[in-house]
Amino acid sequence: MFTTTGSRGLYKAPLSKGLLLVLSGLTVMLSLLPKYQHMFEYNLQAVSHQQQVWRFVCGRLVCLDVKDSFCSGLLIYNFRIFERRFGSRKFASFMVGTWCLSALLDFLLAQTFSFLFKYEVEELPAGFLAPVFALFVPFYSSIPRVSVTQVLGHINITNKTLVYIVGLQLLTSSPFMWLLVLSGLISGGLYHSNVLWLQKFLFVPGWLCTVARYLLEPLFSSSHPTSEAPLGMGATLDIQRQQRMDQLDQQLMLAQFNEARANARHQAQAGLLQWSRLFPSMRRRRVAQPQAQGQPSTPPPPLDNSVAEEQVARLVEMGFSRLDALEALRASNNDINMATNFLLQH
C-alpha cells in the first residue's frame, strides 16, 4: 500500500509494532468502556488550572476517536522505515523528543491563539498525534519522490501521495487538529535540524534501551520475512497454484533481465522497475557473513561510464554500500531518485 517502505511488514521495527498494538488496543478498549473516556481527554484547562498532570500524559497518548487511531496507525506503519534505517534507539529518541517539545508548543500555540482571537482553547484532540505529524519532516526531506502515474494527464501521483492524503484526512478530523499538526511539524523540524543541540538533551538513555531490549523486544519483534511457512502448508489448491506461478514468473523475469542487461544499460527505461523481481539477491548480500579477519578485502568494482561517481558518493553518504549503489544506479539508468527508492525498500 505504501510504496516507500517496502514489503517486509514490521520486521526490524519493534517500537513501531508496539505503538500500533498498544495504542490501538487502548483505543478499542476505551470505545467499549465509554465511562472511562473522560480520564483520557486532553483538557488544557484541567492541566493548567487544576494541575491534573496525569490527564496531560494520558491525553497525549491514547486516541479517543477510532478514526484518528486508524489514520495515525497507518502513518506509524508507513514511518517504520525510519526505525529500520536509524535503529530503534534513535527512532525512540525522536519520538520522545518531539513529544516533549510538542507538549510545550501546545500550550504556547493555544495561548497565542487565545490572545489573537480572544477565544480560549479548552480541549485538544487526544492521542499520540503530534509526534506522528513530526515524522513528516524527515519523510519530506529524506525520502525521494518517485512518480508512479498521472491522473488526467496533469496530476502527478508519486510514491508519497497516499501518505499525504492520510495526513490530510487526519488533519480535517477535528476543529483544533491543526494546532497539533503545527505543533508536531515545528517540534519535528527543531529536533531533526538539532537546533540548540536538542538531540543531546532529549534522548532515550542507553540503560533504558537495554532493559527494553530484553523485556519488550521479544514481545514485539517480528520474524524475518523469508522465514515463512513452506509452500502449500495450510494453503488451498488455488493458492498453491498461484504461488508456483509467481515463482515461475520471477524466474522468467530474472532470466530475461540477465540476458538483456548488457544491452539495456543505454536504453531508456519504460515504466517502473519491478525491483522485487529484478534483484532477488540483494537482500542476501546485505545479510551475508563478514569476511574472516586476516583475509584481504575484495576491491570495489571499477566504475562504468554509465554511472556517475558523484551519484555513487551520494548514495554511500546515505549509508548504502558501494556495491548496492552501483547495481541500483545501473538498473535505474543512472536515475538517483529511483535508485534511492529501491535501496530504501530493500
Strand order of the largest sheet: 1-2
Q: What's the overall geometry?
A: globular
Helix vs. strand class: mainly alpha
The mean pLDDT is: 78
**Residue windows where pLDDT falls under 50 for at least 5 positions:** 1-7, 227-235, 266-295, 301-305
What is the makeup of the main sheet? 2 strands, antiparallel
Radius of gyration: 24 Å
Ends: how far apart? 16 Å
Description of the structure:
This protein has 346 residues and is mainly α. Helices cover 59% and strands 4% of the residues. It has helices spanning 14-32, 44-49, 53-59, 66-78, 80-86, 88-117, 130-134, 136-142, 161-171, 177-192, 198-201, 206-215, 217-220, 237-264, 275-278, 282-286, 309-317, 322-331, 336-345, and strands at 42-43, 123-124, 147-151, 155-158. It has a two-stranded antiparallel sheet. Strands 3-4 form a two-stranded antiparallel sheet. Helix 4 runs antiparallel to helix 9, helix 5 (80-86) packs across helix 6 (88-117) and helix 6 crosses helix 10 (177-192). Mean pLDDT is 78; it is low at 1-7, 227-235, 266-295 and 301-305.
What are the SSEs and their pairings?
Elements: H1 14-32, E1 42-43, H2 44-49, H3 53-59, H4 66-78, H5 80-86, H6 88-117, E2 123-124, H7 130-134, H8 136-142, E3 147-151, E4 155-158, H9 161-171, H10 177-192, H11 198-201, H12 206-215, H13 217-220, H14 237-264, H15 275-278, H16 282-286, H17 309-317, H18 322-331, H19 336-345
Helix pairs in contact: 1-4, 4-9, 5-6, 6-10, 17-18, 18-19
